[in-house]
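Inputs:
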Amino acid sequence: MILLTEAGLAADSETLRQQIRESIKTQKRPTVTVLSSLLAVQDSLGYLPDEAIEEVAAHSKATINEVWGVASFYTNFRFTPPAKHVVEVCWGPTCHLVGATGIIQGLLDEFKLSGEGDTPDGRVTLRYNTCLGACAQGPVMMVDHHLAGRVTPETARAKVKSLGDTNGHR
Amino acid sequence: MATYEELKQGAERRWKELNSRPWIRVGTAMCGQAAGALEVVATLKAKLAARKIDAVVSEVGCLGLCYAEPIVDVAKPGKARLLLGNVTPADVDAIVDGYLASNRVPPQKALGYLAAAGQAPLAGVPDFKALSGYGKQNRVALRNGGHIDPTDIFQYIATGGYAGLNKALSAMKPADVIKEVTDSGLRGRGGAAFPTGVKWSFLVRSNAPRKYILCNCEEGDPGAFNDKTILESDPHTLLEGITIGGYATGSTNGYVFIRHGHDGPINRTEAAIQQAYKAGLLGKNILGTNFSFDIEVALTGESYVAGEETALMEAIEGHRSMPRARPPFPAAYGVWGRPSNINNVKTLAYAPEIISKGAAWFSSIGVNKSKGTAIVCLTGHVQRPGIYEVAMGLTLGEVINDIGGGVSGGKQLKLLQTGGPLGGVLSAASTTVTIDFDEMAKAGAILGSGGIIVADSDTCAVDLTRNLVAFCQFESCGKCFPCRIGTTNLLEIVDRIVTCQTRPGDLELMRSIGKTIQAGSLCGHGQLGFNPIRSALQHFAADFDAHMKTGKCATGGCEKPRLSPTNTRPFAQEATPEAALTGRPA
């Protein structure tokens, strides 16, 4: 876990950079690009700190703006540390027809959120997804990479109620 | 290096060994996982270990009957397979103690038996092939789905895999392969339905030292999951198809392009690639011939437009997935500026069977100029949602009613949405339309990615249209301003209609924006972006009238709050003046 307190910032920034360089370097696919490197960092840290943009730029011989251009485009990138758990809920047309609106509303109520985002206690990130790929089981949600289908507002809330304080999504 | 015959002999030996013990197959494609299949696998393994029963448990792909997931398939040596549906961890005792140990079939869960030639049926269990969800399928690309372990190349080879590639490399010239594919009548399954053999021949014309076969599994269409299902069920059939395409076109490299986060398809494809290299079916001098070919997986971030062919190449190169202007076309100037050919997963997955069984066999399936099968994803308000591979030429009604069991809850059919969100909607009268590229186009729809979303009579067409337009707006890549601004305007207007706050002239304004988007966009996203509204206005004018004239939704379904994503592209809420200057979010 990276501490983002004022005092620890300078020392932690170097640790963070090392971690970022490591994840860029250890990508296992042969084609290495700005996008593949950003995905690798996001996979390892869960988000893209400023340092990641800089390190990917240095590694790819690209400008900060070019890298930021890619990072800001794809909606799966985030720029602040994620909460401990990530809950995704599908709003695609199939799930919409079979009750996604109710699932989303139930989760918003549960988390006391008004839209996508993180709960103030840093426990859960709620994301809307255009398609989680299991349409025949709609409505579909995903909790820390685990798909769950045919959910109801009640079962969806029950699934997230039991989420503990340990990191669940990496 | 092993010859194909040696590989085949080894594979058949392993297959025999595998079938000499009890073999339990559990469908764990995304759809099985969403139904809880992984919990069933864990419970099964623990139970078998506790009882010290020597049985193999394999995670397999999809049989197509998503409605019955998780499906557990228990094979005892020499006996017909027993398929159980909607299995939960609580059923594991009945499977292991009841069926494996003492031959008692769990009565509530039995879907059917699958008997090989010479095997007796299982008493008291229906024939699995008599289920319309399975029996009415004609599985070509998905022939191995649910039957073999997708992470074991030897199971693929034992069931006839890589015979097509072996035949192409040992007995056919590249031009013969292209002729075979052209003669088969295979047309692209990504949406445009372009003849595959002809497309391949474009790439042959270039003598560049490096040429690419790109396989598109971006599949961002909500309601379609057939590409991902092929990768999860039988990745080797795709790798074999890509390699055949590589040989036919004189290409050197292949990319399988998948969206980041779809771990099942990614992991199973990468495992298959590793095995193919190890077996000498990829890499240098494949099967001892002069032909060398490499395949790797490339990931994209979340972006629907990344599935557009030139945007896909931009994403592989690591840029924003925004479409390029054409010409030059990919066959001349593709990924990394090199000649490239792009096919959909399904298209390439047909190639092995076309080569091994011949063009005439493939073109005997299907109708008119639509040869072979269609892999449809049937979802929404339907009794038996699933992924069904059927011969072209069936009507939409046959798929929905005979295979899908009709509209769920005994309600009436109101609307169909086919071919992805930009495909628009069809009325209930469209059930007589046949699944045929050209017939569907005549009816104003597209087969596209194969998604068929069913909506019942309680659905408000305006509400569904709003969902489709919101998708279209959210996923506009932003390169062409008519699409970027136009889809945003359209969503604003549709939002007004949904909430019964229409202004005079809204309809005319939408039509005018629709024309502009169509004319002013580089790719299909903008060109087809007005389709959802155009088709909904055509077929469901009454629903719009109710909202616009009487100020009340006819179905009463539009009172719910309208939710859609806030994280719009490109990250609008961070676009402060400081961010513009520094290139960073505020």
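Chain A touches chain B through 59 residues (CB under 8 Å). Flag for discussion at group meeting.
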